[in-house]
Amino acid sequence: MDGEQNGTQAQQGTQQQEQQATQQQADQQEAQGKHAKEAAADSPATGGVDAKAYEKQLAERDSRIEELEAQIAEASKNAETADGLRAEIAALKQQGAGERVEFSLMLAGCRNVKAAKAVLGDHGGDVEALKEAEPWMFADTPQK
Fold this sequence. Notes:
Shape: rod-shaped
Structural class: mainly alpha
Radius of gyration: 33 Å
Number of helices: 4
Distance between the termini: 42 Å
Helix content: over 70%
């Protein structure tokens, strides 16, 4: 469970870093846009407006927006994939724990694994304690 929380916290930290980086890039682009507008306003050939430079800046900004949107989409896919994998890992761990208990009971000579699993919790999950308390459940244990 701690691993899942740590993974979630790391994922949230990564998302925050991406958001901060995106904001910084947007701020930089805004500053560049202001400088370009000032330079275009100083251009005497077109009455203070350089249309080609302005269109180029718009195209660059639109391109950067598309790149950032693609990065956001990829990050959300990765988050969904990671969540799915965490769920699969948890299910496999639970299945493995159940199989270990069953195997331990079979090795101990249990006659009915399903019944033994039902009462194993009453003995703290200890197969040996169950074997001592309920010897009739085990084939090789003499009854008291």
